[in-house]
Structure prediction request, 179 residues.
Amino acid sequence: MSAKEIKLYPNEKVAVLPFKKSAKGNRYAVTNHGRIISFIDKPTRGHFLKPGVISNYPGISFRSKPITKSFLIHRLVAIHFLKKPSKQHKFVIHLNYKRNDNYYKNLKWATLQERAIHHRSNPNYAKANAKLTEKQVLTIKQKLSLGKTTLKQIALKFGVSDMQVHRIKTGENWGRIKI
Prediction:
């Protein structure tokens, strides 16, 4: 592939990756927008590489026979364009939760605890597989305390088994919720 002048976005910065040249003499660079460049002499003369997917994140693999090294693009961007606050900040998080958005202003170094908090606040975070919400359980407990409806009627109304309603009644399930 011939080396062409590549077009960078306004304010896009380039950092050369500290890897050995490939067998074809190619070197690699990463931009603060999360794009990977393959070049021979200057990072502005080459071509952009299409990232693959590594653990559901955009990544790139470099092969130097017999060894293949893989890197997540957001980590490369963070290493080269973000200051690491401390040694405890080992993880890189996407502030907007979009794994494909590797712009340096969307990334942040985080500790394990910060990463867990960020993950739980993700709107796409898969919640537990409970069929009932706490509000529904509270309603069930109130109906049970009144004693006017049967377990079977409550179970049909909420789409669960009558055994599940019985376990809610005895406190075996959802025991932490009080009326």
User: Anything to note?
Assistant: The chain has two domains: 1-111, 134-170. Residues 134-170 form one domain. Helices lie at 73-81, 112-120, 134-146, 151-158, 162-170. Strands lie at 4-5, 14-16, 27-31, 36-39, 45-49, 52-54, 57-64, 67-72, 91-94, 107-110.
